Amino acid sequence: MDNTEVTAASGNSAKSGVIVWTPAMTNMMLGFLADLVAKGKRTSSGFREAHHRQCAAVLNEQFKLAVTGEQVRNHLKKWRKIWGRVVILKNLSGALWDENTCTIRLAEEHCAGHCMARKADAPFLNTPIEHYHAMATIFGTTAASGMNARSGNDLLSIDVEDEENGEVNTSPNVAESSHPKGPPKKKAKVVKVLQDPLVTTLNYGFKLVADALVNYGD
């Protein structure tokens, strides 16, 4: 990653190892990548490095900066985590989804109790979720067909590193969950055995015969 801090105010740069993303920069990045998805240019495994470089070039031209493709990729990962949190909260017990405002609505008492335990979720409850449609296009669209199809709530892998490499986002609704997930638990497989009707009839007949022989013997 290019160790350059990008300042949107003046366009100047200084060696600091941090890149500051403004809402305008994030909006353009997500819009550009969502457009690639709409045009069918994204692969089933995610965006190519060339896509990240193209996006960086657009940002640099618009904001007169020096963003790299790797910085775009790392910033995209931040929004993938946000989308993952949004998907979980949409399925929260008692939550209602407002399609018109892209808001996850939760009763105030329920919301207060939830946010007390999970403060990182507060920016996503009872307030419009910024960039929702762009995130839904990038991370939630179907990436394949048949057995490999992904539903709208699945997370699309974008092939990024696990660390943010010192990245800072100034957009207000970018809180990340601080609750790591463990490996998924394996569910016990339940197998239902359907008995042949003929076998059931024969078994019943044999039982009747056996009961008759017992009675006869007595």
From TrEMBL:
Residue ranges annotated as compositionally biased, kind Polar residues, are: 167-176
Q: Which residues form a coiled coil?
A: none
Q: Which Pfam families match?
A: Myb_DNA-bind_3
Q: Which residues form the Myb/SANT-like domain?
A: 21-107
Q: Where is this region: Disordered?
A: 163-188
Q: Which domain of life is it from?
A: Eukaryota
InterPro entries per record: Myb/SANT-like_dom
Protein name per the record: Myb/SANT-like domain-containing protein
- What is the species of this protein? Aegilops tauschii subsp. strangulata (Goatgrass)
